[in-house]
Structures are given as C-alpha cells and as structure tokens.
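Figure 6 in text form: structure in, sequence out.
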C-alpha cells in the first residue's frame, strides 16, 4: 500500500535561512520543488513562458539571446504596476504546472515528503493552501534578515529594505504557518536539529 506523500510548503523572507532548511530537508530524503528555480527556467531563452512574454510585452523585454530581460522588466514593473500582474498571470500558472509535474515524478520515485520551496507562498496563499498539507515558515527578526543579506549579497540596507517591503510581512507569514522554525541566535547544527525534530514529528 502506498501512502500519500506529505506536501509541505516552505517559505520565509529574504535572509531567513529558508534555503538552508530546504537543504537539510533534502538531506533527510525530501524532494525539494523549488518555485524560484522553475520560474527562472521558464524565462530563460527557449523557456515555456517566453512566447507569452513576447506576445504581451514585445521584444523590448527580451535579451538578444531571447531570455527575459530582468532589469528591463524590473524597470517596467516599477513604473507600471499593472505589468507586474500581467507577468504574474503568465508565470504563476506555468510554475504551478511544472511543480506538479515534478511532484508526480518524485512520487513515482517513492518520495514520502514533497517540499514546495516558495518564497512568495504567503502572497499567493489562496492558490497554495489547497495544494499543501502543512506550511512551514522559517522565521527570524527583520534586523537579522538585513544583516545576513548584507553579509551574503553585498546589498545596501535600503536595497534590502525595499525587497522586504515587497514581500509579505513577518506577521502575515506567521499567521499562515502551521509550523515555525525560529532561525534566530542559533548555529547551523542547532538549525539542523530543529529540522530533524520537525521531520520526526511528521512520522518520517
């Protein structure tokens, strides 16, 4: 008899440590389905989203190689919020489709836990909630996020604050969480221990 695999949504703000937690879950045997990686692959040259992007926005938003020009898109979205909605209406359904394809493959490989790694899960909670058994939020203080990203990405504080302002607030994320991993004031070994405890709590 095959058990239905657990479908876990994993999210957290920039610098929260979400990717590190995803890595620990992969080590434990989970299939990681990375929404960001899928989104990037869809908008590379020859990606599934490119024909619709071209039809909607024209060639000005493509690089000479035929990929989405992210800088041009960012500038357009900044000056015209409607274009962000248009782009999302192209990308989001395709991301969902590819993630479902990846999930089916993982189930066929016998994976008992599917982790949907989605940075903007809370922003699309109505779409995601029905697809998931549980939502895990990797949480830390906003100041900790800023310090980590400054150290990691060499971005300035205003740049990071601008990115954070476009994401769900800490309160919004925590309100959607079934499980919270507090990644604050602990080292990697302690974080890994928390992930293992959560994994064991699922009976995996």
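Output sequence:
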């Amino acid at each position: 008899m095959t058990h239905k695999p657990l479908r876990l949504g994993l999210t957290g703000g920039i610098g929260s440590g979400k990717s590190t937690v995803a890595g620990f879950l992969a080590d434990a045997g989970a299939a990681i389905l990375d929404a960001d990686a899928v989104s990037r692959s869809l908008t590379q040259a020859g990606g599934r989203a490119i024909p619709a992007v071209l039809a909607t926005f024209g060639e000005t938003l493509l690089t000479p190689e035929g990929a989405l020009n992210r800088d041009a898109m960012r500038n357009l979205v900044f000056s015209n919020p409607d274009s962000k909605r248009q782009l999302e209406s192209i990308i989001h359904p395709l991301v969902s489709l590819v993630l479902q394809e990846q999930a089916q493959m993982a189930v066929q490989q016998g994976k008992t836990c599917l982790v949907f790694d989605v940075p903007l899960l809370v922003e699309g909670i109505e779409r995601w909630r029905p697809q998931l058994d549980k939502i895990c939020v990797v949480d830390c203080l906003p100041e900790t996020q800023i310090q980590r990203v400054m150290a990691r990405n060499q971005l300035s504080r205003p740049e990071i604050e601008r990115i954070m302002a476009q994401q769900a607030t800490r309160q919004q994320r925590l309100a959607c969480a079934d499980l919270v991993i507090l990644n604050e004031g602990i080292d990697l070994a302690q974080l890994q221990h928390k992930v293992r405890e959560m994994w064991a709590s699922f009976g995996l």
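Caption detail: The chain has two domains: 1-30+112-204, 36-110.
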